[in-house]
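BACKBONE STRUCTURE TOKENS:
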Amino acid sequence: MLIEHQKRSSRVRFKHPVRVVTLDGQPRVIRTLTANVSHKGMFVRMPEPLPMGTRVALSLEAGGRALALAQAEVVWARAQESHLPGRFAGCGVKFTGFLHPRAEDLVDYLVDNLDRGKPLLLAPPERTAPKWFAAAAAAVLVVLAAGAALVFSDSEVSADDIEDEVEAPVATQPIVAGAPIVVTSPGRGIGVRENPPSTPPPESAAAVDKLAAQGIAADKVAADKVAAEKLAAEKLAADKLAADKLAADKVAADKVAAEKVAADKLAADKLAADKLAADKLAADTLAADTLVADTLAADKVAADKVAADKVAADKVAADKVAADKLAAEKATASKTPKIAADKTSRPEKVAAKPAQNSGDFDDLAASVDPRALKQTGRSGRVSLPSCATSGLSWSLQGTNLVLDPGVSVSRAFLLTNPARAVFDLDGAAPKKTVTLSASGPHMQSVRLGKLPNGTRVVVDLDELPRSAKQADGTLVLSY
């Protein structure tokens, strides 16, 4: 556990060109320098650090090429440089996966050797180190040799550029093949190690070339992956846009259809209402025409009856006068003494006129309904057959004639030519049109007519009143 903790926390200063490619959103390529490295990550200098959680791909630059190293994630950032030495603006990244089979070995090799002040040498041929480790070491030598002027030279690394959080060895001169390597370590002094010959062994050179080719291939794979992710994201966005447009079009179509249905229903309702109104108007017109026809017919019947009654009365009166005259002549003749000498001077015999037809008296009696002649002084009542009311009461109050049907009145009004008082009553309608005689003041007759839902009572007047008004279901006529 202690060894693992030390490995996890080891961190050494390491300034080297690095290429950072962002993997979230639109890819960005950033060329910058590292500040330190550990087994688990490194610090990358940036004036504007990447946001926390950003995924990146890291490649070390050497000899004009980029060697794929690892994928990482930004775990912390420093927005501004501190006045303290080595505290640069940038971000710390944590390795999440290595892009080369030997990349992790390369990182461990760098951390372990730089931290301990060891020379960066290839292992001797006779050592039984694995071939992949030798190739990794060779790659380190080539990377550091190609970028010597940028890594450990005095001209590129100063005391201000060093993170003061980690005490690590500092190389004081470039690493050049065939030259000794001088490494300083705090508390250890200066050590000098022999460098391998200027020309790397063929096996090491082949390993380096192979590692470089693999790095280029890894970069291509990463770029292809980024392009594929971008293409997938663009396709997803296009599909979502098409789906949103389809949904919007459907909503619009549904709205248009609903508005059409509502408009059709409104038109149908209006058509039905217009038809109902037209039917009601036609029914009302028919009822009014029927009432007028019934009224005219009743008026004619009443006029004919009045004329017949007058003829019959005149005939009865003439017959009575003739009978009285005959009786008087008979009485006179019986009292006058007979004169025998003048037999020729006898009174002229008057033949009795035949009796009038009894049917005339029947017609006269039928024209006056005994029920309609109930009156006492200044008031009376005209009884009516089965209809919306049982009778029409009248009373004379000064110069005012008050007509009261005795039930709720739907409408009451006065007609001027001829003079008539009209009541419309809700309720039962009479079976037929009826005309009754009336003996009240200013009243000639009372007529009943049918309404669709009730009875119409018409009072024929002998003259037009000066004014008329409706009060509490009665009609007050002023003379």
In short: Residues 372-478 form a domain with the Immunoglobulin-like fold (CATH 2.60.40). The radius of gyration is 67 Å. Residues 202-335 form the longest helix (134 residues).
